[in-house]
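I hope you will forgive my troubling you with a question about protein structure. The matter concerns a single protein, recorded as an amino acid sequence and a row of backbone structure tokens. Please examine both parts with care and let me know of anything in them that strikes you as inconsistent. Here, with my thanks, is the record as I have it:
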Amino acid sequence: MTQVMTLDTLSDELSAALAPLRAGERIRLLHERLGTRLVATTSFGIQAAIMLHLIHVHAPEIPVVFIDTGFLFPETYRYAEDLITRFKLDLRIYQPTVSAARMQALWGELWTQGKAGADRYAMLSKIEPLNRALNETGADVWLSGLRRSQSHTRADRPLIERQKNTLKAYPILDWADAQVDHYFHQHDLPRHPLAAMGYVTMGDWHSTRPAVNEPAAATRFNGEKYECGLHLASGVADFQI
């Protein structure tokens, strides 16, 4: 119960402190308050350069965890190398304990096997590696680049929220799409190569497609869901995270 009370109290305190601040100030404050309790994550997706640049400028000591599922687009891997070189990140790469080839050989294409298959895939390729990262870094506050405007599943998110045994903090949660575009131009940040091909969100190659006059949520998992399991308070994320 001690940890529950500590996290809940911390959530209330941080929410009040972050609300009036700008994104970079939020990241700096979180690092100053939390130190080694704080870790960031990145997928090197469509808007990843923004959070990584903010961390680079305001708190470069924060460890950044990258979950490499083994199923990312080749362009994502090359984009990741570009951003890593630019920002000199404290990058920690975590991969599933089961390789992509072994996973397919033993269980086939799990992402095509309905909800049970998709949940198992998320657990193996994303949730378990992230659990391991949190355990090994000792962090219990997780910095993420979610934004409310990305999906209806994120529309009501608070700046700080409890998810299992961690707190999640969203420094750019209240940014509109126009702010994202402005930040890219203001700081001359490189775009993900697939953005020019109509991709508005980014994930594994087998579950992401470009948008065709449709919302971002329709381009992931054939429109059946938007979240991979890491950012849900229920469902797949009922596994410890």
User: Anything to note?
Assistant: The CA atoms of residues 15 and 160 lie 6 Å apart. The mean pLDDT is 86. The chain has seven helices and six strands. The two ends are 17 Å apart (CA to CA).
